Amino acid sequence: MANTRDIKRRISSVTNIGHITKAMEMVAGAKLRRAQANVIAARPYTLHLAQLISRLQKSGLEVSNPLLETREGPPAYIVIAGDRGLSGAYNANTLRFAQEAVGKTPGPVIVIGRKAKDFMSKRGQDIIGEYSLRFEDPVYMDATSIMKPLIDNFHNGIFGSLHLIYTEFVSVLNHKPTMVQLLPIVGLVDSEDTGPYIYEPSPQEVLERLLPRYLYSLVYQGLLEARASEFGAQRTAMKSATDNANEMLDQLTLSYNRARQTAITQEILEVVNGAQALEG
Fold it and tell me: In Å, what is the CA distance from 185 to each residue of 66, 109, 206?
């Protein structure tokens, strides 16, 4: 009977764990739906900004900006990871990708998220900026507070280029670590609209106002994509944990029934043997 008591204790523990992981799966799913909607809403804004800047550059008008100019100096990297675990391989994949990128062309690092900070600190990286993910839903002001000092650093020649490393949200089950160059601004998407435009107050001033907004929107989109990827990974991990708990419950229930049947059989045998001894 001691064996059945132990099994019942394990069944109770696994049942409680299954309830917790199921609840966490549902919470992550709700957060994921909101984060996915934010990602889908932000992508067109960034795309149209890039097209507008590209149209300005190719309009034949004389426009220039230091953010478009190549500079000498080491590259810098913004690395976005999570603040917490329980998200499967999300953090490990992102940080491994970041380590490979920084290892090829070393430079200072700006870390966003506690996991990124811990990872880069342990490897002796030169960290010039630290930010935490304070809220479930990043806001545009988070991106501006991150990018404004970095734009000043780029103007002052502290680094020659700036790259953003984050996890692109493809689907609930598919998240891809990605690196995008922020500074100098390159690789803008061409616009199919080639009609004539009149820029007020002037093409140069329009460009000067658009470029920082474009950089803020890239960082903001990176924050949203990383958040959605993290919630997707959490949901998948908690679903897998719940499924494993259910499988373990099935095995433990089977073991409990077998142990109980063995105990009952043993008791019957003892009764029969005792009766036979009395008859003898």
Answer: 10, 19, 16
